[in-house]
Write a structure and sequence with these properties.
By secondary structure, the chain is of the alpha+beta class. It has two domains: 2-108 and 252-273, Diaminopimelate Epimerase, Chain A, domain 1 (Roll), CATH 3.10.310.10; 122-244, Diaminopimelate Epimerase, Chain A, domain 1. Helices cover 22% and strands 40% of the residues. The chain has seven helices and 18 strands. The chain has helices at residues 31-41, 73-84, 130-134, 155-160, 165-168, 210-221, 263-273; strands at 2-9, 18-25, 45-51, 57-62, 67-68, 94-98, 101-108, 111-117, 122-123, 140-143, 147-151, 175-181, 189-195, 200-203, 225-230, 236-243, 246-251, 253-261. The chain has an 18-stranded mixed β-sheet that branches. Strand 3 (45-51) and strand 4 form a beta hairpin. The two termini are 18 Å apart. The relative contact order is 0.19.
Length: 274
């Protein structure tokens, strides 16, 4: 059996933030099997954890349609599960070996702080069809290693955006974020994130996007620390800070469900490996 925990990450309370499933495995699993599990659960990301001999953890993230290279909310959820379950002492940082290198998570009171790589955007011409698919007027378009970033005039434009997801799916990119300064003094900037090509129409809370948004707003506002708001239907609050070529992300997490994968699912894993 493998434990499965459903966590709201970057949450302000139940049913907010971004749901992630965290699957704690005894041994490494086949990628096809993990992709099937992620498609079955149909969450923005499912995280798969395996403990290493050095007591760190291998961590992989799968969206419903693809494996992803960097994911904030499922990493935050993974650390939360390790501490809450007693798998890892809460006083110890969680260390994850991933496709984006070594990532760490530490407790900071009720918050969890992640140490991630910075992924700044560079100015880019929008690819054909991007702005038409997004239906927005862009002040700036940039390209990060993973996504397109579009700055729009104000928070109202971010809220009003209604992308044509069929058209957007044709754009060759992991996802597209739109951003503007916040109209609420509690927050520095707002954003939304769309990734229909990965099986995620609109992501409720996207930690990895803030590895691009933080250096962008650092250049715009001259600040190094921000409180950001992601304006999805569920809503999410993310603290983010620029620290050289690293980004500090912080959020809260709340366990919503616990269970285990049935033996039939685990048998399918063995078939995939064979």
């Amino acid at each position: 059996m493998a434990s499965l925990t459903y966590v709201d990450a970057f949450s302000d309370g139940p049913f907010t933030g971004n749901p992630a499933a965290v699957c704690l495995l005894a041994d490494a699993a086949d990628a096809r099997w993990m992709q099937n599990v992620a498609a079955e659960l149909n969450l923005a990301e499912t995280a798969f954890l395996v403990r290493r001999p050095d007591r760190d953890f291998d961590l992989r993230w799968f969206a419903p349609a693809v494996e992803v290279d960097l994911c904030g909310h499922a990493t935050l959820a993974s650390a939360h599960v390790l501490w809450e379950s007693g798998t890892l002492d809460p006083s110890s940082p969680a260390r994850f070996h991933t496709r984006s290198g070594l990532l760490t998570a530490s407790k900071a009171g009720d918050w969890i702080e992640l140490d991630f790589p910075s992924t700044p955007a560079v100015a880019a011409d929008p690819p054909p069809g991007l702005l038409d698919a997004m239906g927005v007027a862009a002040r700036y378009v940039g390209r990060s290693p993973f996504d397109y970033l579009i700055e729009v005039a104000d928070e109202a434009a971010v809220r009003a955006a209604a992308p044509d997801l069929t058209k957007l799916k044709k754009i060759s990119t992991r996802g597209v974020m739109i951003t503007a300064p916040s109209a609420d003094s509690k927050y520095d900037f707002v954003s939304r994130f769309f990734a229909p090509g990965a099986g995620i129409d609109e992501d409720p809370a996207t930690g990895s996007a803030h590895c691009c948004l933080a250096p962008f707003w650092h250049a715009r506002l001259g600040k190094t620390a921000f409180v950001a708001r992601q304006l999805s239907r569920r809503g999410a609050t993310i603290k983010v800070a620029v620290a050289g070529d690293r980004i500090k992300l912080a959020g809260k997490a709340l366990t919503m469900m616990r269970g285990e994968l049935a033996q039939s699912a685990m048998s399918n894993q063995q078939s995939a490996i064979a």
